[in-house]
């Protein structure tokens, strides 16, 4: 009579293991991937702002109002352009809006925007760490459900 109870208990354990594995793969790993992709996009924006900052600083150092540059027409087609007066530029401020600024205004804006974006990346990094901790916790629960022994800590080493 104990055989059906053990078989039923094993079936319940196996069912729980499958549910936890699905939760890890369908929810936690997907959430982690979304957070990391979002963080990468924010890092890309920071890089673009810093590139603009360097360009503005080089314009200020050269003291020239004229600027020759390559303009992307789309699909990686570039054309050479000449800007007669580069004292005022248009800066992307977000949501598809651009604001005309002089160099000093643009530099102040870039500092504020990169600080804001950096704080956002720090929050995304914390979120990814929480998701990784949740994945690890669920994996530990799975290990206990399956009755596996503790895995040796490969990061540590013997002192003697």
TrEMBL record:
It comes from the Eukaryota. One of its GO terms (cellular component) is mediator complex. InterPro entries: Prefoldin (IPR009053), Prefoldin_subunit_alpha (IPR004127), UXT (IPR003994). One of its GO terms (molecular function) is transcription corepressor activity. Pfam families: Prefoldin (PF02996). Coiled coil: none annotated. Signal peptide: none annotated. Belongs to the UXT family. This is Protein UXT.
């Amino acid at each position: 009579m104990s055989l059906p109870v053990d078989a039923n208990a094993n079936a319940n354990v196996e069912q729980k293991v499958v549910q936890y594995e699905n939760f890890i793969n369908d929810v936690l790993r997907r959430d982690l991937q979304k957070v990391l992709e979002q963080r990468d996009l924010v890092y890309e924006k920071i890089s673009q702002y810093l590139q603009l900052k360097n360009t503005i600083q080089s314009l200020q150092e050269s003291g020239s109002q004229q600027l020759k540059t390559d303009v992307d027409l789309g699909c990686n087609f570039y054309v050479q352009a000449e800007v007669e007066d580069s004292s005022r530029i248009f800066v992307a401020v977000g949501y598809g809006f651009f604001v005309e600024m002089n160099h000093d205004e643009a530099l102040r804006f870039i500092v504020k925007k990169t600080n804001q974006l950096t704080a956002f990346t720090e929050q995304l990094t914390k979120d990814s760490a929480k998701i990784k901790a949740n994945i690890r916790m669920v994996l530990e629960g799975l290990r206990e459900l399956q009755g596996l022994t503790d895995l040796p800590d490969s990061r540590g080493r013997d002192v003697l």
